[in-house]
């Protein structure tokens, strides 16, 4: 499965003012840098957890349907399915009724009856499913430990702008960030 970002979050889980307050920065000189660090920290936390913190739209691409009729949606958490299609050998898209999928938002999974969906005849990337994922549209919807991890990571990167040697140990990543993120990691079994 390949996941392709269609629509990035409209906002960040941490505002520039919140980050500047946490960093104790009173001037506007580094606003662009701090804003970039917020985005980078969010992306890092999302990569570590396989979660979308703020509402986003993604396209899931498959070569064929899973035999067991279950699709784990990553990034999670799943909110809705907006479109689905299969492709024929000529590359033409054929829509699938989204009602063929039963979203299990708690498990961030789509269930379907494998015999009820049409088979793609394109040899690769024959199936596309568009989903909306994320905790919500506002920063307040994001679990506070993940927001704190973003604060700490952005502060760490703000204070340590140079290259750090790989053998520097804990200087590479604050230990507290890993501890805050760990309970939210989506593990594959």
Structure, briefly:
This protein is of the alpha+beta class and 189 residues long. Helix content is 26%, strand content 22%.
Domain unit count: 2
N-to-C terminal Cα separation, in Å?
Answer: 16 Å
Share of residues in helices? 25-40%
Residue windows where pLDDT falls under 50 for at least 5 positions: none
| Rg from alpha-carbon coordinates | 20 Å
Annotation keywords:
26% helix, 189 residues, alpha+beta, three-stranded antiparallel beta sheet, 22% strand, Hypothetical protein yqbg
Explained architecture:
With 189 residues, this protein is α+β, with helices and mostly antiparallel strands. The model has no long low-confidence stretch (mean pLDDT 92). It has a five-stranded antiparallel sheet, with no helix packed on it. The longest helix is centred in the first third of the chain and has 19 residues, at 31-49. The radius of gyration is 20 Å and the shape is elongated. It has four helices and eight strands. The two termini are 16 Å apart. β6 (102-104) and β7 form a beta hairpin. The chain folds into two domains: 2-53 and 138-184, Hypothetical protein yqbg (Orthogonal Bundle), CATH 1.10.3230; 56-133. It has helices at residues 16-23, 31-49, 144-159, 175-181, and strands at residues 2-7, 56-62, 70-72, 78-87, 93-95, 102-104, 109-111, 127-133. α2 crosses α3. Helix content is 26%, strand content 22%.
Task: Map the helices and strands.
Elements: E1 2-7, H1 16-23, H2 31-49, E2 56-62, E3 70-72, E4 78-87, E5 93-95, E6 102-104, E7 109-111, E8 127-133, H3 144-159, H4 175-181
Antiparallel strand pairs: 1-2, 2-8, 3-7, 4-5, 4-8, 6-7
Helix pairs in contact: 2-3, 3-4
